[in-house]
Amino acid sequence: MRTTFFLLFLFLYITSFSQKNIFINKSLKYIDSTTYQLKCSKFNSKCFSISSKKTDTIINVVYNKYKFGKLDTVNNQIVRNDIYKEGDKGFFIIIHYADTLNTYGYYMKNRASIIKKIRKKLNYSDMITDKIIIKKHHLSNSFNEHSNKIQKNNKKCIKKLRKKNIDLLHYYNRGNTNLTKIQWIKDEKKILKNYFFKFYPEYYFLFLKPSGEYFLAGGLITPSQIKKLVKHNNWNNFKKDLIESIQKNKPVGFFNVEHIHSCL
To answer: Fewer CB within a 10 Å sphere, N or C end of the chain?
Structure first.
């Protein structure tokens, strides 16, 4: 909420200035363009922009990609009580978090790239692009095909992780979804958002131990890394690898991976 108000304030404030680009860091403090570019080139940084047609301005934000931390006993209990209303609350938890869920309507808004793929799939490549008409049911079928792939993959993941007393949960802040076979859980009290995902899209995944120790990822995460996080009770070496990766500005040890994770 604080982030939203701050960005709205920026939009209003800059209307009386000719400046076209605003640069801020995670702490919502102004930085210059040189500092911004330098931060964006660092291993543990990720950058994105928010554009405003009304003010003809672009707000550029720099966030982190990875973070280790630990909740104290009280806060760990608050989080787990919110996730588990009853029963065993001692699971190792993996949470995939989405601030806003994409619906079929959103999918339709981005149909340009989808239509291109459909044309190729329907062997329309030899026809004149402007003469081709892609019917709505083609888009709908493409959306459903994409959804089914996600659902099938998700089901396998949950079944596999459950056998190891690991919970894979999908939470969202707002919106709705057509992916009904995925059990999306609304973050009603904003507990997860306020504790871990306040600056979304900084992080997308949370790995939370029963002890309250956690790892947040907003960048590349692989099956190999997840197995290590789950298998090893002591994460000190992983924390050292993050520090060294930041210092050397290149992936080291735990973060030196190549293949994108396809399970979550």
So the answer is: N
